[in-house]
Amino acid sequence: MTLNTPPIDWFGLSPVLTLIGTSFASLLCAVLVPRAARRLAGAGIAVAGFVAGIVLAVWLYIDSADGHTIAAGAYYRDRWTSLGQIIIFAVGLATTLLAVEHVPGWRRDADPDRRDDHVAEFFALLLASAGGMAFFVGAANLMVLFLALEWFSITLYVMCAIDYDLEGSLEAGLKYLIVGSFGAGALLFGSALVYGATGTISFDRIATAIGSQGLTGDAFVVVGIALIIAGLGFKMSAAPFHMWTPDVYEGAPTTVTAWMSSATKVAALLLTFRLMTTAFPDNQHLWGWAFAIIATISLAIGNFAALVQQNVKRILAYSAIAQAGFMLIGLSAGTALGARALMFYLIPYSAAAFGSFAIVAARERELGVPVTLESLAGFGWERPFLGVAMWFFVFSFAGLPLGGGFVGKFYVFAAAYDHGWVWLVIVGVLATLVSLYYYLAIVRAMYMRPAEELQVLPGGRVAVTGGAPARETLLHLAVGAALVVSVGSLFAVQPLIDLAQHAASSLPL
Amino acid sequence: MNASAYTSILIWLPVAGAIFIWLLPLSRYATGALALLFSFAEVGLWIKQASHFDFSQSGLQMSQQANWFGDLGVSYHVGVYGFSLWLVGLTVVGMAACTAYGFWVGRDRPRAYFGLMLLLTGATVGVFEAQDLLLFYAFFEAMLIPLYILIGVWGGARRMEATVKFVIYTMAGSLLMLAAIVAYGLQAGTFDLVDGPTSGSRWLFLGFMVAFVIKAPLFPFHGWLPDAYREAPPEVAAVLSGVIAKAGLYGMLRIAITKFPDPTSYYRTAVLALAAAALVYGSLLAFRSPDFRGVVAYSSLAQSGLIALGLFAGTDLGFDGAVLQMVAHGLISISLFLIAGAVERRTTTGEFRLLGGMARGRPALATLLMTVGVIALAVPGSASFAGEFLILAGVFQRAWWWSAIGAAAIVLAAMYMLRLISAVLHEARGSTVADEALDLRPGELALVVPLVAGLLFLSAWPAGISNHSFFGPSPTAAVRSQFK
Hints:
The complex is a heterodimer of chains A (509) and B (484).
Chain A: H1 10-32, H2 35-63, E1 68-70, E2 75-77, H3 79-102, H4 119-137, H5 142-160, H6 167-198, H7 203-213, H8 219-235, H9 244-251, H10 254-279, H11 284-307, H12 312-333, H13 336-367, H14 379-382, H15 384-397, H16 405-418, H17 422-447, H18 473-491, H19 493-504
Antiparallel strand pairs in A: 1-2
Chain B: H1 5-23, H2 28-52, E1 61-69, E2 74-80, H3 82-105, H4 110-129, H5 133-142, H6 144-154, H7 159-188, H8 202-215, H9 225-231, H10 234-259, H11 261-266, H12 268-288, H13 292-313, H14 316-347, H15 363-376, H16 383-398, H17 400-425, H18 442-460, H19 463-466, H20 475-480
Antiparallel strand pairs in B: 1-2
Helix pairs in contact in B: 1-2, 1-4, 2-3, 2-4, 3-4, 3-10, 3-14, 3-18, 4-5, 4-6, 5-7, 6-7, 7-8, 7-9, 8-10, 9-10, 9-13, 10-13, 10-14, 12-13, 12-17, 13-14, 13-16, 13-17, 14-15, 14-16, 14-18, 15-17, 15-18, 16-17, 16-18
């Protein structure tokens, strides 16, 4: 029996393959490299992998002006994929820098002998999850979509639990696993229904089948779309599929939270935009409204729940839910302007999300306890660079003109208005107003309370006594890079919009 | 150097100065001196800009335009008109005086403080020069960020509530403006203020106006004002009432009235009523206020109402008077807040029942406060008399009863200003006024005297502003032509 293998465009898949390859190499480090050098070796491989991935993705971006599917219609080689991969890999590179000093065993009381035991596995998982996300954004049929989703989800479950001597970390991993599996199940079930109705799993043929057979109102298709939206909603942590987000973001090691909150969202939102506009263009009246409503709920729940939080990681987690709401405004418009808005928004968003969690990680390491608004007191004056950076990040989230978040918000509002949804603009405006309260609370906690008010543990016990915080050169480097992207995207709007526009031109809009 | 470069340099020089100060580990003294140098450079550059401005020429001058993001028609477009030139001047002069005050009193955390003051200067100049709606919005919001930190870190005991209230109020307005900007710009196909068409949409007009009436503020949107003005450090309160409030009034003139002629006339009576309410209510509250800063704060509310009365009168005299009064009141209010700061430093309080008798042995303080106070109550011959007269005459042409209300409020102005002067300077010596409390020091005089000199100059020649704000003999025609 002969097996007919389709021709494979290996170059088109090269970013994903590079990440898998370096992931294996990093895993080998865990057994082959002595413990003393393991951290550096793993990190070095990760840096090499991400840099190579970025280079290849940029090359593919330039080389893929006319987007098409490769590997027998399983994967899109186009600019939408490449740009998404560039963002994901850039966040991955920054996460690597952060992880060198922070994962696992960031705590000062961790046994120094055991600290480097699993560090190489961490980098292997990071590379593997990035590879999975890179594959996910390029998915061209429902099977690849599901496989890639499970691929990066499973690595994320493990990463959440990597600090296994921390109860919170284990709990986060387990919670994410259970809720995430539920989401994946919904996605798979929805895919099956769509396949049952249309007889195909490839995105573009689903659209053709729905169009030619008049399946727009078909119950299987409609329910299938609903379940797919629910499944993807879990990944982008949009309300009402957000229940896991605050707990997992709080419990997971902060480095992992930084990675998840930015990269996962990029992958999930970009894939969802492509899936909806490519596979279900005739059903836009359905999913457009569905996403508009999900956006509204996310904005409401994310912002109002964040108001009452004390733990900074939880505040940022709810803020991530609300930010998903803003980006879904662009998605719900489903137009070329919406695509541009979404793609642009993701750039400053991922920088600010990564950067803000990295700063929380620094404070957490310094104090040895979870970071609350109370324990941020005096932080801005003690560590001016990180304080100012945090200032820029939260104001960029809030849409104040200190960062690209301002332009991103403007673009999604423009997309909603252009689509005729003035009410969604008003919702977004009101949500921004509410969000200001807790974003400003972070700045207030850092700057407007003297360090003497710092209360680390109840009863005035201080967990860490004396001494300057650890020198975290790489963390500063990563935060600095995030700051440059966040502020730079306010000024260099035109080049970024051009990139986003070219990327969006690969979609059938 | 090309004269149009001044517009951009005026915006970005202080921003560069702020970054410079944040990055350089200079001593306290050197930081303050450097910031002051940047502020003075701003004043110098503005004088150069004014000297290049051609009042006999219509349209936008010294403009610069660069692409920001072209697909939606947003650009970096700056330039000045006659009236914006005066407001830019008010900004740089006022900010220089307030920065100098901060230097004089030796604010702690000097690098953060002076950096923020410079940032605020750049953003405010940007508001008055921006000719693109989104750019205007960006600067309008950017003013808020340094103000938030300046009040929150260096403010009084109840600064937290004051900042939250201030930010939430102003952002509520400006976010609705953002929605209106999106709608206007996408309908028009451009966000440019010069090229943009007029619009008849009442909703959009209201979206813009809500931001401006909160910033100005007008009754009943002034809830943030008393707390912010009392809790802010004196020099920041001076900036708030002298300069930032004018950004709201400027927005009414440049955007709301110019771009929305039909909605303006539709809502004219309503806005005039709010303005008159602000004027009367602010004056009454100022008269009842128990402390120095309270009087100045509420009188700012009243003055904002008066200026809005002039703007929405929609007559030649009204427009001329409003611009003159914006500058005159800006200088008055900055001087009064800085003097209030000087009094508070000597007595630790601004409450009238603890003050009194400060004129004895302090001739400089008495003379300056008296001079500014007399100008503030619009004694005939003063700059604010000219401004208020023009405004009242302008609104008289609309309907006589508006100016009757305005004239009544000016009587109230005399009452509250005289009450302030006598409560601080005269009457029996207050319990907090020690004999050792010094007269104004040379440093303090150097801050306030130039402002008062500016006021006296405007008193001598109010036409310097009122005849040089709009092109041509008729401001209404200039507004109708959208200043083209």
